Amino acid sequence: MKKIIVLVVLIITFGFIIKIPEYHELNDLAIIQGVGVEYKNNSYIVYMKEVIPIRSDMGIDYKFKYYDGESSDLEKAIERVQDRTKKRLYYKKVKFLATNIENSDYIKDILKINPKNVYHPAGDIKEHLKKTNS
To answer: CA angle 73-132-74, nearest 5°?
Structure first.
């Protein structure tokens, strides 16, 4: 009997020690399809392209919403983007990164993303983000 009580206490204790992953509703996530990072005038400007699937009679259509944030530090610029949306940013579906920074690995490491394509456009990063889908 003592062994059963000890076993139950241990299981309950492990339940408190081991972190259970948080569940997030899909509607509470901003699914980011593309990220743009621009460095000019000693500050970072981060653009994020959210994909919003909409069900219609013809199937599924997609709308896009854009967020931006600016700061002298890349992490703070990302935080400002997060502050502008009420949703949690979800980066696992990022397809592309557009930047004018040569070391794009730095951006990928901070955001923990692995996009299929990395673009270094000569023009406006935000306009490139709007035109690109993959």
So the answer is: 5
Backbone angles phi, psi at 92, to 5 degrees: -65, -20
The whole-angstrom separation of Cα 75 and Cα 70 is 10
Query: Strands, DSSP E only, in 1-134?
Result: 29-40, 43-56, 59-71, 88-90, 96-99, 117-119
In a domain, 42, yes or no: yes
Structure tokens at 24: 């997030």
pTM of the predicted model as reported, rounded to 2 decimal places: 0.78
CB of 111 within 8 A of CB of 132?
no
Structural domain boundaries, residue 105: 23-131
Report whether pLDDT(23) > 80.
Answer: no
* Domains contained in the chain, number: 1
Domain-embedded: residue 81:
yes
